[in-house]
Amino acid sequence: MPPATQLLIVKPQNDFCDLHCAALPVPGANADLQRLAAFVDRCGDRIGHMQVMLEFRHPLNISHACWWQDATGQPPAPFTVITRDDVLHKRWYARDPALQVLALAYVCALEQRGRYPLIVRPEHCLIGSWGGSIQLDLQGALNRWCHRTLRSVSYAPVGLNPYTEHYSALQAEVPDLADANTMPNDSLLTSLAKAEHLIVAGESLSHGLAATVYDIAALLGPSAVRKITLLTDCTSPMAGFEEMGKRFLADLVSRGMRVAKSTELQLV
Asked: Into which CATH architecture does domain 5-58+125-260 fall?
């Protein structure tokens, strides 16, 4: 049975850090993860289980530019929003005609499910790349935790299915019925449900971390939300989405989620 206090870390990868050569940097993320590393070193002996959600992608992904083209054959610019109407009215096509029906079904499903709209992102967290690796300071702290406690960190890879996006650690934006890895992660949910205290951190406050906590609330219910403490100095919103991050915090705090700085949280 998982120990009473767990730490869930979402997407602590180089490509999300504000570092040179990062593909999708979140302002402040590198310092967030340095503070998280210090927290793991300071409080890790009182954390029974570490779970880290990592995103890995193929170059061909429905949210990458190489998937799409306009009527002249040009790819979309980074951060282009592609809606149901854009695909229906043929402003954007799948470059592979065999994927056009799937692409339309996907953007329709996003709208129906109330998920994030499809935004074309720079290729990031590619399999085997530097950008997909864990930020160096945090990786060191996790390794030291393993050495001290003789326990292993649990890693949850997501994002390998190119036909859907995976903001949340718990399920894809649109689950693929043919791929169990895009469905709700029952083993992770079972572990989280057994935690008496769940600490969450990682990137980003507006997207990956927010989507994960929203899914915990939806799939495990109000009692799970009241067990969560979010480390406010170990997460940041994506640039341009600061208000989204603030709304997420206000919403979940109103439901009973606690917040604390990593430097102030005391574990017993």
From this structure: 3-Layer(aba) Sandwich (3.40)
